[in-house]
Structure formats: C-alpha cells, structure tokens
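To: structure desk
From: M.T.
Subject: fold request, one chain
Message: Could you run this one when you get a chance? Sequence is below, nothing fancy, just the single chain.
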Amino acid sequence: MKHQQTIGYVLKGYPRISETFIINEIYLLEQMGLKLHIFSVKRPNEKKSHAVVDKIKAPVTYLPETDSITESRFGLWLAKHLPRFAGSHLRLMRRRPRAWLHTLLYTIFGLGFQFSLAQGGRFKYSFIKEFLQAGVIAEQVLAAQISEPIEHLHGHFSHGATTITMLASYLCGVPFSFTAHAKDIYLPKLNPNGLLQTKIANARFVATCTDANRQYLEQLYPDGAPIHTIYHGLDTSLFAPDRTRAARDVPVILSVGRFVEKKGFPYLVEACRILKDRGHSFRCRIVGQADEQSPLVARLVQEGGLSDIIALEGGVTQEALRTIYAQADIFTLPCLVVDSGDRDGIPNVLAEGMAMELPVVSTSISGIPEIVEHDVSGLLIEQKDALALANALEQLLLDAELRHRLGQAARATILDVFDSWQTTVALRDLFTSELEKRAQSLRPQPSRPDNIHTSPMESITITLPIERR
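Reply: Done. Structure tokens follow.
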C-alpha cells in the first residue's frame, strides 16, 4: 500500500493563541488534501486555544523538554539533557553516519565557532541544543519512511525553529523550506553571522507574509531560494460585519495585540488623553496577551487619569475576538519599528478589523501600506506620533460617512487579497510542487549511499584528525 507523502511542520510551540495564522494555515492545508505532521519544540502553556485546533488531524510530536541553556552551565545542562536525545542520535549515527558527523561538525564549527569569532570568543551553545532537537525530528522522519513518509520539512519563523528544521534536513536528507515573518527577519542577533542568508541559500523556497519582507530578503541574498509573498489571510466568513447593529451613543475605539513595544500602545494612550482633553466622548479597549509593556501601559493609563475611558483586557480566542470587533466602531494599531529593528509585517488583527468593516488607523511602516491605502481603505500616519494618531481618530469620531466609506473599502480589500483560502492555495501549490520533485528524485536510479544535499559546511575548511571518505 502506498502512503500519502507528508510534510513535517516545525514550530516553536503548538498550539499558541497568538499564532492564529499558523493554526488556520495548517487546518486549511489539510482541507486542501495535504497530510501534515507537527513537530513542536515546546508544549502549550496557555489555558485557552482556538476552536479550529480541535479540527486539525495532524499528529503532534513534542520534542524533549529542556531547560534554558547558558554558557556558564553548559556542562551541567548537557549532562542533564543528553540522555533525552541520545537514543535518536545513536540511531542516526548508525543509519547515516556521514550525514550525522557532517552536520555535527557544521553545528560546532560552521555555527558555534564562527559566532564565537564574531563575538569575541563567546560560543553560542544554543546551536548544540538545536542540533540535538533536530536529531529527534530527523530520526523520526527516517523511522517513518514506510508508514508515514515525511518528504518535506517546513519551519515557521526563520530563527530557532528554522535552524532546527535546516539541521534536521541535513541529518535525514529531506529538503526543507521556511516561512519568515517579522523580528526573525530584521533582528540580526536571531540569525547571527549570515545564518539567515545560509538558510535562504539552502532552502527549496521561502515564504513571507509581506511584499516588503520579500524585497528585503531578496536584497539580503539575491542568489538564494525563490522567495514568495504569501499573505496570512483570514476566515472572511468568521470575520464578517454585523450590519444590523444599532448605532452606539458612545463610540468604541478598539486595539488588539500583545503588549509589546512594536504595537505602539503608549502612543494610543497619549492619543486618548488628547482626545479626552478636546472634549470627545468615547471609550477605548486594548485587548491582548500580557507582555513586556503591560506594566508601562497600565501605569500610563492610571497616571493620565484615563481609567474611565481606557480598558485593558487580556488575550482571548479568535471566536471571542470576533464578538469584540462587532462591539467596536473604529480599529487602530499604531505600530512602530523598535530600535532593535523588530517590527510587525502585516498585523493579523489589522486585517481582521478591516474584514469586520471597521475603519482603521495605523502607521505607514513595513507591510501595512500593502493592506491599507490611505484615505481609501483606512488612514495612515507616521509612526511614534501620538498627536497625528489623535487627529486621525478625531476625524473618524466626527465623520460617520467617512467611517462607513473606509469600512466598506477595507472589507473589499480583504475579500480581494487576504481571504485565507486564496492565500493558502498559493502555499499548497508550492508544497505540492516540492513533493512532486521529491517523488521524482526518489525513483530508482544509481546513487551513492548516504547522499545528502548541499549544506553550508562544504564551504568551510576544517582540519580533522580522522580519515575522510
């Protein structure tokens, strides 16, 4: 009996309430006929999850749990954790000895020591952990060749999960691809010493969620794998406006996102203070998972005497969020580029608000102008400008006709470009093409044993006290 080819999805954690786009992507790929196997570095630690998770059929393999690894305690860390990975790596050593040694040497010399040279002698031990984790995936891929032939690996986010994906690919000989998103692209420390370029060079393809990201990645490594813009998309049947709702006496401004710096919530708090001082009547809801800026935003609300108009609320499921959108009149997300380079691509919540036919206000950074055309499908302002944000929100508070016009155009944009089924079809086609190539390459033909595809280790000269074959 011939089994269907499977794609291994490598994720940092599964399921995660903040990564709705990945969960929806997996579900839709299954609906389109693809078979997936999820490899998750971490187990879920959230009490809530989206309803669609229960509809996903893909089996989930959780990698052995590990503590945080630090330079000063590496020996203790290794002694504690190596037994959890030893079985997988011993089986790999027996089955693919050259590939295993090749990948180990690349991890130590091509990743660890190159980082050490660039950072003044500091070895990055997390690469060793990622090598050990990659071995679990690679060994399972090889062990399941008959019952569940995993013929392609795909990592989400181009740093840790994709490093593991790439190393697993080298170990088992199965090609890989990855999706790049936001900070994983723009923060050099997450892919030090040209590691992102290495991944682009060795992947079969790269997907990313904005055209701005695609252009940046192509400039970063123009001779690498093809890079495709594939918007996250969303379920436009779930996020649909309720046109029967009655007008509210007090309009509601809504913002949604994790409480991190790049969301720009302190500027929204200041904009609300300006609007209050101007005598406007409104309420503002900021909904999202607590994070690094939660204390700051709460303090700004308290010190500004804004507790009567600004409500700070925790993260919710996608289904509950749809109800919250339906209770709003305006959506805003004043995104910014952090000094480190971190930024959003196209925030999913911005697309959700637009799909709900809400007029939106955001900033003209990153991929946001790809979804919001100023004064057509929303209003755009410069980042880090609370006064400009207040002025744009005031314009919408005072002009019901403008709110209606922008809201209708916003939903039309989402239906045209960001419907999740349409965007996932593009990704499905990429996977299908790669699986067909893989099937063709596996047809009987003369080949040397233990053959693996090119890795960046081949460009590194190392003198080893062993005999090479």
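Reply (cont.): The first helix runs from residue 20 to 31. Let me know if you need anything else for the meeting.
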